[in-house]
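User: For my dataset I need records formatted as: sequence, then structure tokens, nothing else. Please produce one.
Assistant:
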Amino acid sequence: MTPTIPSDAELVKLMSAGDDCAFATLYRRHQGFVYRFALLMSGSSNIAEEVTQEVFLILIRRPHGFDPARGPLLAYLYGVTRNHVLTFLKRERPYVPLVNESENGISPAPFTAEDDPFGNCTRNEIIKLVRQAVLTLPLRYREVVVLCDFHEMSYAEAAVVLDCAIGTINSRLHRGHALLLKKLRAAGAVDSATPDSQVMRCFA
């Protein structure tokens, strides 16, 4: 008989009752996603590590802050992560240098040569160009690009994270994509003749 895998909501209840194993399971299940979101938002592995620790400390100290009726646990964790990243960026500086994600246990999304709109750039150069362009976006556009493109969240899920309307997510993502394409083309990173849709496939 296949054992039943407890849901996040069930694990949070167990954790709030003092079950350390439940917290450990939640941490293993979601730590990587939280860290990657913080890293893509901040560009700093130090900030990402500290924010990740803070997010899970909040979860274990205030488990009732998560309301399953409002959405999944990961959306709640992303919301807490976002707030902490914004606090760090305001406190330190508006922009921090991009780190090499492959050195931090994060594998970039694959793409094929036929989808490559970046000419003779190597794969690592492409990843660096796109990540740097994302980090230069205003925060309101950066966060929707990271959530929807890199984390493949639906508009509805992203709306829960950011506590805004689905239409706002749609308009900000459209604007974020336009800004990214403009920055990449201005830097000469993308052939001006390459269709926008082909460039977008490399963003995630």
